[in-house]
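Researcher: Next sequence.
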Amino acid sequence: MTSLLLALCNLEINAHQRVFLSDWEQSTLNFQASNNASYTTVNNPSQDAVNSSSQVGKFVSTAYQWDFLSLNLSEEIDFENYPVYKLKVRTSAVGTIMMKFEDGPSGSYVARYATPSNTNQWEELTFDFSGIANGNYGKMIITFDYTSTTAGVEWYLDDFVKAKQNVDTTRPTQPQSLSVTKTSSKSVSLQWNASSDNVGVIGYVIYKNNTEVGRSNTTSFEVSQLNANSNYTFTVSAYDLVGNESGKSNTVNATTQNMGNGNFITSVSLQKTSMNLYDDLEVDIQLNARYSDPYNPNNIKTDMVLITPSGKELVVPCFYYSGVSRNSLWKGRFTPQETGQYQLVVDVEKTQNSQRSGVYTFTVNNSYNDGFLHTNEASFYNLKFDSDRKFRGIGENFAWEARLDLGDDQTFTYDYFFQQMKSKNANFIRTWMCPWNLPLEWKKTDFGRYTDGNETYNLSAIARMDWMLDQASQNGIYIMLTLDYHGALLEEPDYWGGNNYWWDHNYYSGNGGPISDHKAFFTNESAKQLYKNRLRYIIARWGYHTNIGAIELFNEVDNLIRDENFNANDIEAWHNEMSTYLKSIDPYNHIVTTSITGAEINNMFHQPNLDLIQSHPYGPVEGVISAIQTLTDRYNKPYVAGEFADDWVAPTSQTMADYQKSFHRGLWTALFQPTPILPMTWWWEDFTYEGFNDELTSVSAYSDIMLNAMNDQEQTLTITGNDNIDKMGVKAGDKLFVYFYNKSTTTRSPNMTISGVDNELYYVTSFNTTTGIMQNEASVLGSNRQLVIGLQNLQAGKDIAYIIQKGSYYLSQSNQRKQFLEQADQLKIYPNPSTGIINLEKPEDYHHLTIYTALGREVLSVDLDSAREKISLSDQEKGVYLLKFFDVNGNATVKKVLLNK
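Model: Next structure:
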């Protein structure tokens, strides 16, 4: 492919800004047409101002979907200097074109899309690969019949060029005529005139008192969570694709309304007034308010407003539970993230009036609970709980329970599968909301498990969701909750002959919804408001639950572009708007993500409120590793392989061994990459039947050791040696974790060199990746900041992991700690609760004690010389105290004492 990369025609213009690759006159690339499609050079059928060339390329499609031209490549693609590809086209039928570079590093590919705006006239399309790293790719593919199977569509092509990225420094014009259109006691609605830009305005930034409070891709926005009877100033700016921001609009002032003198609240009842940190509080709110739709916050909105012990104000959405207009029960659910005394009021807001309840108080005591999961900005190897404890997700997809009408194995329910995962020491699953599983927003359900209904939100789905989260809590399983999947918006059957659920969708006008065109889902204001209502209901009813580990807006949303020509910009803007809204109403700051198969949608993952990058890299394991490294570097965010397997086609008896090998290697190689959730297989039923879930047990055991060593300063190890051995490693805390895989066809015993170590004695413990058995191997002295590890008889297609540390073998250290913890049964602390004096009876190995308050402040540190000791806390305030006992090896265990005076 020398012609493409070195520009065969050597026609360079605009000081190397554009390089011609093919003009179908002086130069023509050796494209090959797929299937029975035809490709020739012909006379230009219509010369015009866009294209006056004499000769052009002509491609005619067949009835086969995804007809394409392919071009073999042989040299590195220079995306860094020439990221933009342009192609003039003329077509007899408008459809999306995909330009893809495939067979890249570790089997990866990159793709971009463009759609002509008219038929039978020339226009220039742009495919922008900015931000993609240079790489060697095997093929370029240009797919013309990307979203249809229409035969005989003619595509004329000309002036194929690659170009430098034009650095756009032009700022959009200032938004004009900013005005206030509506105020309430807690919100202000704004509207303004659109800005313009030389390339295009992407969205608007809304400022409250000179601080950004939100973004909008339309010319209106509601600023919420404001205080009643308060003054605010607002301005708006515009921004374009590359982030150029306009000057700010005119400033408007707004005063929120008083809470009003409504008489809606009959009673407010807190189910408890004292609770532990990260436990949940439920509040019953009885209303006599009139409403027409309790699920529409523009009709009636109920919130709890809390003042935390630190003085922070939280707004927690409440949800309609039961009853009718003038006599309804609402509930608020809340999980506290601070200790101390809280103040709580209930706000009810209607179109014409509002009311605030009296003040209620409750107290939160410290606990050993961990709280909610969040991304860890300091290290992409793990997530962190509110408690600061680290977490690494290990598990599988469980997208849905058994579909009764399809004859699925009815064993596969949430309780069964959660118990399966728990028994393998797994802790994470990914599950869907869709027409046949947790169909919250589907009146017509599928496959028999759920009941159809006319309610706004499906009652059988609500009940199952409540139950499912309870099961997750009992089994220690954290959930990535996927709110939608691409099939919900498709009109035509897909590859599998189904998944075209648009005609059953609640938003479809034929079912009483606001839109007839499925593509308007992402742009229509009424449709977007319905979706926001749904997000609000989810946060109000289930947001309190700490086992919701992440919220995924869409499964494989890029399939909508591929299959039915949805607009990428619309999808990108929708994700920005919905993720921003979700963050604005979620007091717990849940992790938010969305997923693609692999084809990125513009720069969507740059959006600030999408916390995780997620794609689904089926195929060689190397593709998973490439995705982790490439996308993490590109977006500076953690990446998760939300689905993966040897293939996206179900395994058979002939291929099952390949799937197990892929499963094993995918988990183990990802352990040594900066991903906080290990790749999750899609084939949960097959793998359960075959016993493959046992792979999770050994991975989890090794991961726990690694996780306990992590200190947010993880480093990738440099390991050299035999090229037939894949090698990777991570330094975590004071330990080195390394992994080797023999990819050759013969047994090998090479030496491997780890660089960047200290010139000290290291102890090497092996870890069998299949059985989880550890064995002390050798002590090795570092020299010249290198450590040489000898692999002994590593069989073809097999792998091994090691734990390497100074001072002692990890296995010996592990046994010491096990013995230390077993002695904890001999430890006696009394009286407990105590009024000031604590008596201790302890094992001989417990030689030191440090005492902390529940908030972590050290109050006493003392050596323990006798089997019986007396400790005084008489000078301390009442409350919970943590007693941390140590042995001479640094092992520690913690006990809790309650001090009452």
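Model: The chain has a mean pLDDT of 91. The chain is about 15% helix and 35% strand.
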